[in-house]
Write a structure and sequence with these properties.
- The structure is a single chain.
- The protein is mainly α.
- It has helices at residues 37-40, 42-68, 85-96, 100-113, 119-141, 145-172.
- The longest helix has 28 residues, at 145-172.
- The radius of gyration is 21 Å and the shape is elongated.
């Protein structure tokens, strides 16, 4: 029997409750007005992407202000070696957004693609995002490297939880073709 083909397979959402195992059925879409954990897991990932875009805007503004105030010439940003401290902190934090968050994006995409997200994943993903914001604020607004390291652990542990879930799925053979 031929299945109908849709360009946008997810058109309706539902909230997964303890009694309905929406995310474990591996179907590409849901019915009714339901939003699954799989769908909800996209929001912290999108929030993290939004935070990264915000940091780009902040860095652009900070660099413009540094030039306007005479702290540096635009040519000083060529290798980022001469940046004023307040600009260098933002530059470094923006670079950090392409380290651990890359692992976070990867595991979130895998969990969404496998329709295998659950409550623990959703909590871990939001903890990751909150940890990244706190980490950014500590790194860009203070000199407290010890605190920054402690705050980093929030996102690190949250990512480890997500990676562990994907690892368990791999051990179970989830996603393997039959």
């Amino acid at each position: 029997m031929r299945q109908s083909c849709r360009l946008f397979p997810i058109t309706q959402f539902s909230i997964a409750t303890p009694g309905n195992d929406l995310d474990r059925d591996h179907s590409p879409h849901t019915t009714g007005s339901q939003m699954t954990f799989t769908t909800l897991l996209l929001w912290p990932m999108l929030a993290q992407i939004g935070w990264t875009f915000f940091l780009y805007a902040w860095l652009t503004w900070a660099r413009q202000q540094a030039v306007k105030c005479g702290k540096i010439d635009y040519s000083g940003f060529l290798l980022s070696r001469e940046e004023p401290l307040e600009v260098a902190r933002i530059t470094r934090n923006l670079a950090n957004q392409f380290e651990l968050p890359v692992v976070f994006y990867t595991v979130v995409v895998l969990l969404v693609a496998l329709h295998a997200a659950g409550t623990v994943d959703l909590v871990a993903a939001w903890a990751f995002f909150v940890g990244r914001i706190v980490h950014s604020l500590v790194q860009t607004l203070t000199n407290d490297v010890v605190l920054r390291g402690r705050v980093f652990l929030i996102s690190f542990v949250a990512t480890a939880v997500l990676v562990a879930h994907v690892g368990l799925l791999a051990l179970k053979g989830v996603g393997a073709s039959s």
